[in-house]
Amino acid sequence: MENKDMFLFDRRKYLVLIAGLVMLGIGFALMLGGGAESPDEFNPEIFGTQRIGIAPWFLFIGLVLPIVAIMMKRKDA
């Protein structure tokens, strides 16, 4: 058995998978914060562009990239 056949994915697939996990981490980090100091006051920052517009796209891409990594063909195949 060759060394190439021992791994399920090749290097390119692992990089795409790791990129997806990093994108998920960035997406969740962008959603952090924005809460009010006390429950009596409202902080409009919770509905900002960063949390409502940008972070969901990072999460979506982070969920799609592992699927792409699984579906990609091997270079040697």
Highlighted features:
77 residues; 2 helices; 0% strand; 57% helix; mainly alpha
Describe the overall structure:
This protein is mostly helical. Helices cover 57% and strands 0% of the residues. Helix 1 packs antiparallel against helix 2.
Tell me the layout of helices and strands:
Elements: H1 11-31, H2 49-71
Helix pairs in contact: 1-2
Estimated radius of gyration:
19 Å
Q: Helix proportion of residues, in percent?
A: 55-70%
Portion in strands: under 5%
Number of beta-strand segments: 0
The number of domains = 1
N→C terminal distance: 16 Å
How many helical elements? 2
Low-confidence stretches: none
The coarse silhouette is rod-shaped
Main sheet attributes: strand count, strand direction, barrel closure: none
Report the order of strands and helices: HH
Class based on secondary structure composition and strand pairing: mainly alpha
Round the mean pLDDT to the nearest integer and report it. 87
Short structural summary:
The chain has one domain. It has two helices and no strands.
